[in-house]
Amino acid sequence: MLAYGMKFEEESLVWLQNALSTLAEGFSSLPPNSSPSLDQAPMAAVLQETAIRLRENYPYFHPLYAGQMLKPPHPVARAAYALATWINPNNHALDGGRASSKMEIEAIQALATMFGWTAHLGHLTSGGTFANLEALWVAGQLHPGRTILASDQAHYTHHRISGVLRLPFDTVATDPRGRMDVNALETRIQKGDVGTVVVTMGTTALGAVDALPEILALRNRYGFRIHVDAAYGGYFTLVSNLDPDAADVFATLPAVDSIVIDPHKHGLQPYGCGCVLFQDPSVGRFYKHDSPYTYFTSDELHLGEISLECSRAGASAVALWATQRALPLTRGGEFAGMLQSCRSAALELYRRIHASAMFIAPIPPQLDIVVWAVRGDTPEESSARARAVFDAAARRNLHLALVHLPRSCFRENTWATTSGFAPSTTLVQCLRSVLMKSEHLAWIDAIWERIETAGQEILSAVDSAT
Q1: pTM of the full predicted structure?
Q2: How many structural domains does the chain have?
């Protein structure tokens, strides 16, 4: 029995046992293997030790964990991934992953269709970092030596990747809602050296969605490549409860050149499972190579010929394929409904925070991330109180995150000063929650009760000290 009076889901173990029997039947013509029998006691003891060590983690699987982008895999994904490990396919080549390579191609097709693409080239990766690396590598092949632009709220990986690829990189300022400032972008583009603009569909800090329709208009005028980093936010293209600005952005996604999405975030997959998609299949020419010592049974295009990574877990493809079969990527479907619940949970938490006298909620959520500050006379005091509330919430088993926001995200008169001078702090530490589990909507009362109680504890302690 675990904390919160709960047990882990175990029904999928029954599905796995039955599926293993079915899998074994497919190899019934083979003679029995001669694998040595396992010594049961030591193996069991090691697993028990492993389980004890894993208790040191935060409860990422539970709705009271709302800090980072950590979402438990769907039971069918866990079971399918485990099932595939009995074969342990490698999707680098058809020889190493005959069935799982076909499953990956089908799963990628479903993702491309979700974004409105018919023609495409794509594959799974070990995560969003490598997927973005491949997208920017192709961008560099098409526009060698030209600058990559991303907003100052984009993931830091784009700067690092550009350095690895030896491509110039520059950042563009964001507006008070954390979105790329389109006027600043145009000013930077006018220098004439830009090859690619990275548009973020769900920034890490705020979940902000860059203004893609306006950026597409700039592309028509100036001519550059658009890569969309939708690692976190891409699946929200399926939901119907976005604000109008975000809905307009997702509606224009079919016009971009490349997209990255992480099924191990909102796609209910185990780590690591990222995906890169290109609208133009002809970019596959940049990947082409000849390794006769590796491939010897097929002349068909294999996934190893359209990816920079070599060995890749076929189990990731199997798990994604199985999940999308069980929960199709369709508007109005069960999967889309799960995402809509996440979005509804974020809206409800924001409503409560915004109405509270203890907190400041500067920016309405565009997806399912909510960020707020604790009231104080100065930004420094507000930041200190946020850290205290963070700790007080954790003592109540509610795990949030901390994030720094620019003061420009807040109203000018948010913090009064007795000296008449503006506070020197340019960043304010805030609390952050990612409500990316569909159960979060049902847990909003419990989450809010802990936030409110933690806030009251800290402010009461401040009042007592003064």
Answers
A1: 0.93
A2: 2
